[in-house]
Amino acid sequence: MHHDFDSQRQYTLQHDRRLSAADGQLQMEGVGLAALAAQFGAPLFVYSAPEIRRNVDEIKQAFASHANTRICYASKACSLLAVLQVVRESGISIEANSANEIRRCLAAGFAGNQIVYNGVVKRDEELEFAIGQQLHAINVDSEHELLAIDRISRQLQIPVRICLRVEPNVKAATHEGLMTAFRAKSGVDLADAEGICRQALDMPYVKLCGLHMHVGDQVPDAEPFGAATRVLVDCARQLETALGVRFDMINVGGGIPAPYRYATDRGLGGPDNMQPQIGANEFAAAVIREVHAWREDIEICIEPGRKVVSSAGVLLTRMVTAKRKTLLREDGSVEGQVQWCMLDAGFNAIPDYKDWYFYVYNASRMADSHCQPVKLGGPLCDGGDYFRHGPLGEQFLLPPASAPGDVLAFLDVGAYQLENQTVYNAQPRSAAVLIDGPGQYRLIRRQERFDDMLLLERDLS
Fold first, then answer.
1. Each residue of 107-146: pLDDT tens digit?
2. What is the pTM of this model?
């Protein structure tokens, strides 16, 4: 197992389009990562603009056989303004899940008609704001929401484009918390779709554009996407006939998985969906096949998030201390020993620590063999604040010479980690740097300060 992990490290350095080593240290797009941690502090998120563009291009190429495809980046994956601007400059649209996410998209330069609005809870004030922006579409999650949109659009006398979100009742082989098309809180029953759509047709300012769904996140195979798209297409075909309408679009959501364990990795680590068998090409083929069996002219809307930014982000964390502890059984006998490396980032920085696998390398000693088993603990006063999924179960592999002061890099953390950071134990939320190109980088978010943490309690006027 040690050999497999070290072989993967060497293969990554030789073949990965993002990463390399110089003077024994890890680089991303030609920028030394340990030097970034020295300049800006740690924990530090580092994003690669070239990698975001490469990922967007992969999705565009995957859907090249259907010219009328609208790619809407799921901004919840990472909504840093600088990241959103890179996405906008890549030429695609965007998806938001709250009024404030819409505001972030607008602040990054997106036009209202480039934004799709999702969410199971849209308050009246959010709907009023969204309708005023004349979005590409609002994905309606319930009959109650549709009635609210009707009422508000009449008051404002502003037209609004909608898709109805339905639940295809298709399971996917991913974490139960990431399934959204089977016994989920989102969407309406297929049996209720016709009645709700009939109501929409009688609303003077509401334009019914089509149907929407989402299968789930980090789905490791293509079959659920094909099956769910088939259900969506069958429902849309039936509604077009029953209602005498012709839909403009069909929105199949997102879910293109990211490889957290690479295809070349023959070792172990993390749940099965960490090493998916598909990418953008297989996702696109499953969707396009089913849609083209119905219509080839309709707009296909997709909402990828993880696929766009996951591989574009790394987290840099510093080893602060190390210690060796004896593992005792309940009867006091010795089971063994474990080496602990204590980091300045725990589940406050990487909330997916329990269910996710990440490659962790010593960025300060990247050229050294990673063969020493260690457990990685975070700074929080919580017994569960340690990382669960390494190449040796709960143990990771680092160079034997690893020492306090070294910078470790967690790869592929660009999606959902920074967005879900907490301030537990009054730990500040991390700064972020964007690498614009070879040797070019800039600070795009400063680290949270103590005064920032007190602002909501002191600024009560």
1. 999 999 999 999 999 999 999 999 999 999 999 999 999 9
2. 0.95
Banded model confidence at residue 92, pLDDT cuts 50, 70, 90 = very high
141-168 residue pLDDT tens: 999 999 999 999 999 999 999 999 999 8
Active site members: 381
Count of C-beta atoms within a 10 Å radius of residue 275: 18
384 or 354: which leads in pLDDT: 384
Q: Which domains, ranges and CATH numbers included, belong to the chain? A: 2-47+311-458 (2.40.37.10), 118-304 (3.20.20.10)
Cis status of the peptide bond prior to 400, with omega within 30 of 0: no
Residue 373: which of 406, 333, 324 has the closest Cα? 324
Nearest C-alpha neighbor of 232 from the set 278, 317, 166, 133: 166
Beta bridge partners of 181: none
Q: What is the rounded distance in angstroms from the CA atom of residue 372 to the CA atom of residue 363?
A: 15
